[in-house]
Amino acid sequence: MTDDGRPSVGAALETQIAARDAAAAPPGSRPADDPPALDPPELDPDWYDAISVRRSRRRYSDRKVAAAALEALTAFTERFRLAPGARVALVADGGDVFTGLLERFGGAYGRVEGAPLTAAFVGPKDSELQIGYVGEAFVLEATRLGLGTCWVAGMFDRKSAASLVKLHRGELVFAVTPVGHPVEQKRVVERMMSTAVRSAARRQVEEIAPRLMRTSGHGHPAWPAWAVTAVEAARLAPSGANKQPWRFSMEHDALVMGHADRTGWTAPIDFGIAMLHVELGAARAGVHGAWERLEEPLVARFVPTV
């Protein structure tokens, strides 16, 4: 619970998933070597402001990360986790983890260079949704601290990443991000990478929420202001190849997330990222709530509680 009695943000998502997993587990089974259990994490309101500032950056300067920022990031990794074990591990350097695309050109296309820190997004099998939620919280915390990041779910060496991080039994590294101070000027290769994934081209809000009503009309009520702000925040969420695989609709008083007709392999992680953005947008509009998982073809439903 928060200090004013509201449910902790993310608590319901964690409770729903933990209950589902416990019901599916064989009687008497218990995972070994699990990370220590923590209270459900709370969100920093400043992360909402970081949403519009965040950019994916692949080249970094040799400027050191300040001790205060490093301490804040380390504290984040220790407190911010979601069942069934999604967490962030922060390590120094880790440059060998990042690999480029098109090896015949020396692997430069898409390569990350010069980052002093690497964060690995870790969890057990089938925890992609929670990985996206926790990983994006870390990315926004780094952005709040004035640092650059870049979600990398495909072009990294998983063996190298696993060797850098102390993994508990059954854990995998799902994605990584460099962390540091990006160089001011993008190099040609980095600009090409941004163009290839259309990083600056995003769908309009009405495309990811086709039935959005800003004002009442034709027998349909206007969407509540909090839901509009939440969808606008989700629009700015990063996703694999910038596919933005989420679609939103209103169901009574709840905001429902479904998926597009065509999605990429990173979609489960992308959904978790967007869920965090929805919560931050709703909270900025003064509404807090809880996520409920839904059956395919839907993803989840955000239900206001305050």
Mean pLDDT: 83
| Share in helix | 25-40%
Per CATH, the superfamily is NADH Oxidase
Please report which band the strand proportion falls in: under 5%, 5-15%, 15-25%, 25-35%, 35-45% or over 45%: 15-25%
Q: Supply Rg.
A: 19 Å
CATH class: Alpha Beta
The global form is globular
| Total number of domains | 1
Q: What is the count of helical runs? A: 9
Which fold name fills CATH's third level, the topology?
A: NADH Oxidase
Flag low-confidence runs. Answer: 1-9, 11-32, 34-38, 193-199
Descriptive notes:
The protein has 306 residues and is of the alpha+beta class. It has one domain: NADH Oxidase (3-Layer(aba) Sandwich). 32% of the residues lie in helices and 15% in strands. It has nine helices and seven strands; from the N terminus they run αααββααβαααββαββ. The chain has a four-stranded antiparallel sheet with strand order 4-5-7-6. A three-stranded antiparallel sheet has the order 1-2-3, with helices on both faces. Strand 4 and strand 5 (254-259) form a beta hairpin. Helix 4 (128-144) crosses helix 9 and helix 8 packs across helix 9 (267-284). The two termini are 13 Å apart. Mean pLDDT is 83; it is low at 1-9, 11-32, 34-38 and 193-199.
Summarize the structure.
The chain has helices at 11-24, 46-51, 67-79, 128-144, 158-164, 188-196, 205-208, 225-235, 267-284, and strands at 87-92, 117-124, 171-179, 246-251, 254-259, 289-293, 298-304.
List key phrases describing it:
306 residues; alpha+beta; NADH Oxidase; 4-stranded antiparallel beta sheet; 3-stranded antiparallel beta sheet; globular; disordered N terminus
